[in-house]
Amino acid sequence: xxxxxxxARVVIAVYGPPRNSxxxxxxxxxxxxxxxxxxAIFIExxxxxxxxxxxxxxxxxxxSGVMRKLERPRxxxxxxxxxxxVRRQLESSCHRxxxxxxxxxxxxxxxxxxxxxxxxxxxVIFDQTNPGWASLRRSTAPIWLVYSAGETGNRAMDIAxxxxxxxxxxxxxxxxxxxxxxxxxxxxxxxxxxxxxVRFQIPGNYDTDTLLHLANTGxxxxxxxxxxxxxxGKSTHRLVNSLRCPLIVVA
Amino acid sequence: xxxxxxxxxxxxxxxxxxxRTKLSFADTSELDLSDGIxxxxxxxxxxxxxxxxxxxxxxxxxxxxxxTGKFATVKEVLDQIAATRPPAPDWVYVNNFEDxxxxxxxxxSPGYGARLRKDLEQLVExxxxxxxxxxxxxxxxxxxxxxEQEFTHRRDQAxxxxxxxxxxxxxxxLSTPTGFAFAPLNTEGKVIDPESFEKLTESExxxxxxxxxxxxxxxxxxxxxxxxxxxxxxxxxxxLEREIGSLEVGHLVSAxxxxxxxxxxxxxHLIAVENDIVDHVREFRGEQTQTAAIGAESAGIQKETxxxxxxxxxxxxxSDSAAPVIYQDLPSFGNLTGRVEHRAQMGMLLxxxxxxxxxxxxxxxxxxxxxxxxxxxxxxxxxxxxxxxLRSRLVHIESMEKSLGLMSTISLEPxxxxxxxxxxxxxxxxxxxxxxxxxxxxxxxxxxVADFDERVNRDEDTEFxxxxxxxxxxxxxxxxxLTSDAVARVVEQASRMTEDSSKLSTRLRDLSELLHEAAHYxxxxxxERVDATDVQRAIDxxxxxxxxxxxxxxxxxxxxxxxxxxxxxRVGQINALSVLDLGGFSFGQxxxxxxxxxxxxGTLVDxxxxxxxxxxxxxxxxxxxxxxxxxxxxxxxxxxxxxxLVFEQSYGMVDGDSASLAELCAxxxxxxxxxxxxxxxxxxxxxxxxxxxAIGGVNQKIEGFFxxxxxxxxxxxxxxxxxxxNVGHLMLRxxxxxxxxxxxxSIYPVQHVNDAIELLxxxxxxxxxxxxxxxxxxxxxxxxxxxIELALARRDFTSPPSPNEDEQT
Lengths: 251, 809
What we know:
Distance between the termini of chain A: 17 Å
Shape of chain A: globular
Structural class of chain B: alpha/beta
Largest sheet of chain B: 7 strands, mixed
Strand order of the largest sheet of chain A: 5-2-1-6-11-10-7-8-9
Largest interface: A-B, 42 and 42 residues
Number of helices of chain A: 8
Shape of chain B: elongated
Order of helices and strands of chain A: EHEHEEHEHEEHEHEHEHE
Strand content of chain B: 15-25%
Number of helices of chain B: 28
Largest sheet of chain A: 9 strands, mixed
Distance between the termini of chain B: 55 Å
Number of strands of chain B: 31
Oligomer: heterodimer
Radius of gyration of chain A: 18 Å
Helix content of chain A: 25-40%
Number of strands of chain A: 11
C-alpha cells in the first residue's frame, strides 16, 4: 500500500434511513487517516416528495407489507427523523476517530446533488439506495475494484486494499484487459504486510451492466475512480440506483 | 440399744467390695479392648434382628435412659454390620430436557458418579470448542452464505424485476423512509408532479392509476412472500446446523456411550444429551452473528447452555467398601431430605438442578441412618418428613414452604429417589411410649425396639468386662490407663450408682465423667496411670462441688435451727429420712415427723397434703397406714380418733411413701403414749398388713443421718432402721462402714412394723393372744386401749343425756 495522501474532504451521500453503521465508521476512518473532514449529504428525494402529492399514491411498509396513503407531511417528518438519526450516528463515528463532521440536508436527486456538491472531495461514498433490505451483517463478500491505470486508479486501489484489511475479506479487481494484470498484481504484492487474496475479473463486455451483474453476486463495497468510463457520469447514477452495496468513488 | 431379737447388720453387709485379686492385670492397657459393649444383650439381639430383617417398617427405636451408651453401641453395631454389606449406589441429578422443572435421577454403581461428572464436564468443555469451531469453518460459512444468498437473490430479483417492469411502464420504484412506493414518470423520465398530473386527461390519469395500482398489487404479493422465503432460509439453516451438530456431537458422545455401556441409565442420559445439543446447536455457534434473513441473534455460548449438560452428584461413595452409616446431629427438615438452593441474579432468585443438595436420607440410602429422636421431634416438620419418606420409600426434595403450601412460585420438583434404608432412632423410654401411644404411624414404621438397660448384673465376669469397657473408654478419650485398684473402685461406684450392690451401672456418660476427672487428678499428680485414690478423689471432689446445700442444712441442724434429736425419747416424734436430689448430686437428710391425736371421727390429717406440700404418693402412704391402724386396732369400736401427721420444718414438696413406716410409728407412739428413742432414724414404706417395703436412696439416707449424728458426736446408740429388702442395695461410704465396725453406729433391717416399733420404743409390739387382746403392757395393747377409750368417750359425748341427769341438773 502506498503512503496515504492527505486530502481535504471525504463526502458521504446518504439516502434514506441509516442502513449500515459500518459504512459510517468506514467513512470516518478513511477521512481520519487522510486528515480530511467528513461532509455528509443527506438527500431528500424530490421525486418522493412530488409523488407524495399525487392523489393515488400509496406506500407499502417494509416490514409488514401494509399499504397506506403516501402523505407528504408524514414523508417530510420521517425524512427529518432519518436525517437526525444519520447525523447522530455519524457524529458518534467521527467522535471516535477524533475528526469533525458536517451534514447538509439537500432536496433533489441523489447523484446530481452529490456531483454538484462534491467537486472538491477526494473520496465520495454513496450509501446503497437499492430499495431492498440492506445487509445488516458485516459481509464476508469481497471488495470490488474497477481498476483504471493512472494516479487516481492507484489511489482507488489503495482504498480498496484498506477496506479489504478492515473487513478482512478478499479483493476482486475488474480489468478491461489482461495487459495490466501482472503490473497490478506486482503492485499489490509489493505492498508491505499485504496478504489479501486477490482475484481478477476480465469480463468479455467491459460495461456498466456487466459490472452490475458481477458486483451484485456478492460485494461489500465497490471502489472506483472518477475517471473510469464504466462508472462515471450517467453510469454513476445507474450504479447508485442498482448496486446492492455502497459505491466509493475516488478522485 | 439392741436386743437379741433385732440384730444390727454386720459391716460385711454394708458394702459389696470388688475383689481386687480377681482383676488380674496391672492396668487397663493390658486388656483386650476390642469389645466395648457391656451387657445389653437384649438390645444387641434387637439390633441384630432389626438390621437383619428385610421387610418394610422394621426400623429400630433404641430406647434407654440418657447416658447409657445407646448411641455408641448402635454406632459400633451398625459399623460392624455395614462392613459386611455392599456399598450403596451413587445418585446423580441430571437435567430433564423435556421438562427442566423436574430434574431426573440416575442410579449409578458406587464410584461412577464422580467419574461421570468428570466425563460430562470434559464433554461440555469439548462442546465449547468443537461446535463453535465447526460453525466457524469455511465449509459451514460458505453453506450458510449460499442459503442466505439464495434468499437475497430471490428477494432482490423480485424487486428488480418489479422495478424493471415499472420502468417499462414509465413508473419509478421508490424507497420511502419506511417502505416502498411507485412514482409515475413523464416522457422525460421525471416524476409527474401534481400540477402536471392535473393537466392530464381523465383517461390518462386513469391509465396511470391503473398501472400504479397493478404494480402495487404485485409489490404487495412480493412483500407477502418474503416471510415464507425467510422461513425457508431458517429451515435450511437449521437443517444445516443440525447436520453439523449431529456429526460433531455424535462423535464426541459415542466415546462416552461406549465407556458407560454397563450403566444403561447413563447411556440413556447421554442419548438425551446428544439430542438436546442437536436441538439447541445454534446456541453453540459461539459468535456474535446477525442474520437479516433469519432475524435471529446468538451472543456466544451462554454458561447456562453448557451447565445443563453437567450432572449433580448428590451422593457419591467413591472408594467406600461398606454400606453407609450416617449420624446426623441436627436432623432438620432440610438436612434430612435435602434442599433446592437458589442463586441471586439481577434481583431474582434462580435455581436449576445443579443447585439440588442431597440430605441425610440420600447419603444413608442403602445403609443406615442414626438420629436422636428428641432432636428430631424438636425440628419443625422433620418427623413428618421422615415418616413420609419411610412410608412411601421415596425421598422427595422440596422446600418446607412449598410442602406447607406457603409458596406458589415455580420451583424445581426433582424426581424422588427410591429409599432403601434402616433408620435407628435413639431416645428415652418415655419418648418411645408416647410415640407408641399417640402416633398411629409410629408402630408401623418402627417395629423393632432395642431396650438398653442402665444396669447389668454384677459378677466376676461382668466386673472383668467392665474393666475392659473402662479401658476402652480411657483409650478412646486418650486418658491414662486405670490400675486394677482404680477399676475396682469404679466398679464399686458403678454399683452405688445403681443403688444395688449386685448390679453395675451402664450409664456410660457418668462413668466417662468419672474417668475424665480421675485422670485429671492423676495427671495433676504426675502419674501415668489412674489409681484408686484418683477415683476416690474425683468422687469426693464432685460431691464437694455440689454439697453447699447439704452443708447449709447440716449446719442448721447442728445449730438447732432445724430440730433433729439424736438422743433422748419423745412420744409421737420420730426421725424420718428423705433424699434431696440437686441434679447430679443427692444426699440424705433427716426430718422430724410428729404425730398428735384426740377424739374424733376417724380422720387422719396429713398436714403436708392439706397444705398442698405433699405429693400423691406420700398421701397414698398415709392412707395405707390409716388402713393398717383401722384393721389392726379396736376392731369392735368405731375408729374415733382424729390424728394429724406433719413433716416438721419442711417447706418444700414431699413425695414418695418411704416415710410411711416412720409416720405409722409416730402415730402408734402418740396413741399408745409410748416414747420413741430419738437416736434412731427410720425409713421404709409399709403396706396395709404392716409389712415393710423397700425404698430408694437407702445409702444416701443412712449417710445423711450418720453425718448429722457425727456432727453431734457418735454415741454408739445411734442407728438407722431400714427395710430388710434394702440390705442388698447397701453400698455405704467408708466412714459409715468404719463406724459400724467400731460399734459407734448401727443399721437395723426390719421386715414388719412390729420390728420397727420394738426397736424404736424398746417395748414389745404385741401379738394378739387367745382372748383376742394384745398382751398387757405391749405397745399395741396401749394403742388399742387408747382407741377404745376414745370410742367410749365419743359415745358418751354424742349420747343424749339420761332423764335422771336432767332432774339432777
